[in-house]
Design goal:
Strand order of the largest sheet: 10-9-8-11-12-13-18-22-21
CATH topology of the largest domain: Rossmann fold
Strand content: 5-15%
Number of strands: 22
Structural class: alpha/beta
Largest sheet: 9 strands, mixed
Shape: elongated
Number of domains: 3
């Protein structure tokens, strides 16, 4: 009954504590007089025992030391017992002084007994609670049946992670070891748990049958994190990570906050350094306009720009619900910052004119675009309306209203495009570049590949499919892509915007390419599942317009370096503005006819390197006629 799911009655705990006090007084006398208590001392026992038991009983009742649930005894409980017992012992001392100086020159309780009883009571009461807790845990969850956990990182975060486990889930988990790279810590112990070197990680997982490895280092190199995960996945150990301190609730880590490692954690690179001072000089006290503001890149740009104290940030997007959510977030995170939310379509010329006339932006970040390759392959007229016409409207207004800088966020799919989406973005690039000499506005283009966690990305698709039980769909076993985290991409966009003089196309170092099949397999295994047994991977074939791999330069283009190691400038061909304006105007006028083949044919005339792949438009590359669909 003592260790059942029912809590031990408070009255029973109180009686046990009082029995401990009685026992402690007797022990104090026996120790004080070497187990031979003089008769004269024993005559004082009625007064001594009455005084001690009364004071202790009152102090227990007032402080409610008996009210805690024994099996959840913590350090805080031990501290409270210490303070309560100390207060009672101090009271005994005060009573002694009052008795000696004002009553009969005798002590109520000998000081030696007070000291010994103080030590004995604390030790016995804490020990009782710990023994009950250990017994309860062992009976309800024997050590052999508890999930074995290993913590990487024997620093403060590692200790806090262990305590969070002990406090919130100690009955289900057992920390078997710490692992750390710091040689000075090897062989030492933290709260009874030994610190081991990193090269023993694999043997520790095997020996102790570790099921969970918690990474408790706040700033761990991506390469090291990758190494840890590889070892864990090899032995089917689940990998967890301690979140940043800033997310802890009231500065305290809870067990439920320790989360699974995500694929984004493994694909990230060492943090890219940017010129914060130069960016701040560019953005401080400026009116900044961001299109596509509720999108993955747009919203993160807004968050980062807000840190540089602009005069005002104008957010433009047509996605009402997403903009509402973003507004709530921004008002909460950036109190005092001046945001202007405008629900608007960049294809609406009069609406955009009103925005530029009203807000007079000095810097424009243009991220709004249709970006999904298969969708635009089936809807080329919409790609022209948004990616080409929308960009032209914004660029023309930037010149008309004297915008200082216009930064267009493009894509690696604009390079040697094989699809309508990529070709439409390349046409937008060509137009903004050609417009660079028309006024004081500096037009700057940034190109990069896929961003992790963006709307519609492979990572989000795979995650949804895994949560749904599969299958996980991969278009081709050999398809590869470059990936960059959203914050990293936005930092580089801001850096490029600062260094841009106008007319450049900046290319970002995307790191190593990732095989999408490997990405899918790793995500499945990180979810604690097995490929082929729990989740099936199914190949669906390349989608219309899709490449096996992406490029950052067109044929015949090359790059020159910049002062930033991760940013290059693409040396691209230039176009005559009058000629390109005429061709784009003709392209836009084709929207009303809705002749997809005619539209795509015109796009191929503007972008000769646009060669369709896995698409119905391949026949246009063979110089066959067009038809309406």
């Amino acid at each position: 009954m003592l260790f059942s799911n029912h809590n031990m009655p408070r009255w029973l705990i109180f009686l046990i504590d009082m029995a401990i006090v009685l026992f402690s007084v007797i022990v104090a006398y026996l120790l004080r007089f070497n187990f031979h208590v003089p008769e004269v001392e024993m005559r004082q026992w009625p007064l001594v025992f009455t005084t001690v038991l009364t004071v202790r009983a009152l102090s227990f009742i007032i402080s409610k030391t008996y009210a805690g649930i024994i099996r959840y005894t913590s350090t805080e409980d031990a501290i409270r017992i210490f303070l309560v017992i100390l207060a009672g012992s101090v009271l005994f001392g005060i009573l002694n002084l009052l008795s000696f100086y004002f009553i009969n020159e005798k002590y109520v309780v000998p000081f030696s007994i007070i000291i010994i009883e103080f030590i004995t009571v604390i030790f016995a009461m804490v020990t009782f609670r710990i023994v009950v807790k250990i017994a309860y845990l062992e009976i309800t969850n024997p050590s052999g049946s508890r999930t074995r956990v290993l913590i990487f990182g024997a620093g403060e975060a590692g200790l806090i992670a262990k305590r969070a486990l002990d406090r919130d889930a100690g009955s289900r988990y057992k920390v078997v070891a710490f692992v750390d790279d710091d040689r000075s810590k090897w062989g030492k112990k933290i709260e009874g748990t030994t610190i081991q070197p990193f090269d023993k990680l694999e043997s520790l997982i095997e020996e102790h049958k570790v099921e969970n490895v918690i990474i408790a280092v706040q700033k761990l190199r991506p390469g090291k994190k990758q190494e840890i995960v590889d070892v864990c996945l090899k032995h089917n150990a689940r990998v967890l990570t301690v979140p940043p301190v800033s997310t802890w609730i009231n500065g305290e880590l809870s067990f439920n906050q320790i989360r699974k490692v995500k694929i984004e954690d493994l694909l990230e690179r060492d943090e890219i350094q940017i010129s914060y001072e130069k960016i701040s000089q560019d953005l401080r006290d400026k009116v900044v306009l961001v299109t596509g503001a509720s999108g993955s890149i747009g919203s993160e740009l807004v968050r980062q720009i807000a840190r540089f104290d602009p005069q005002r940030i104008i957010l433009i997007d047509q996605a009402e619900s997403a903009m509402f959510d973003l507004e709530i977030e921004l008002l909460d995170r950036f109190k005092g910052q001046n945001f202007e939310i405008a629900i608007a379509d960049i294809r609406n010329a009069s609406r955009m004119e009103n925005a530029f006339r009203t807000f007079k932006p000095e810097i424009v970040f243009h991220t709004a675009a249709y970006k999904h390759v298969p969708m635009m392959e089936n809807n080329p007229s919409e790609a022209i309306q948004t990616n080409v016409r929308g960009t032209r409207i914004l660029a023309d207004l930037a010149v008309k209203y004297g915008v200082e800088k216009f930064i267009m966020v493009s894509t690696d799919k604009a390079v040697n495009p094989t699809n309508v989406m990529g070709a439409s973005k390349r046409i937008a690039e060509i137009y903004t570049q050609s417009l660079n000499q028309e006024g004081k506005t500096k037009f700057i283009t940034t190109r990069f590949g896929n961003v992790l966690g963006s709307n519609g990305s492979a990572v989000n698709l795979f995650r949804t499919q895994i949560e749904g039980g599969g299958p996980v769909t991969v278009t081709h076993p050999e398809i590869i892509r470059y990936f960059m985290t959203i914050p990293e991409a936005c930092r580089l966009v801001l850096e490029a915007a600062t260094m841009g003089k106008g007319g450049e196309i900046y290319l970002f170092d995307m790191g190593k390419p990732v095989k999408i099949l490997d990405l899918a397999e790793r995500m499945i295994r990180l979810s604690g599942l097995e490929v082929g047994r729990d989740i099936e991977i199914r190949f669906t074939g390349l989608r219309p317009g899709e490449k096996l791999f992406e490029e950052l330069l067109n044929d015949g283009e090359n790059v020159i370096g910049t002062d930033h190691a991760h940013i290059m400038i693409g040396k691209v061909r230039t176009y005559d503005l009058a000629d390109i304006m005429q061709k784009i105007s003709a392209l836009e006028q084709m929207f009303d006819e809705q002749d997809n083949f005619a539209i795509v044919k015109k796009m191929k005339e503007i972008v000769p390197e646009f060669i369709s792949q896995n698409s119905v438009y391949e026949k246009l590359d063979k110089h066959e006629g067009s038809s309406k669909v």
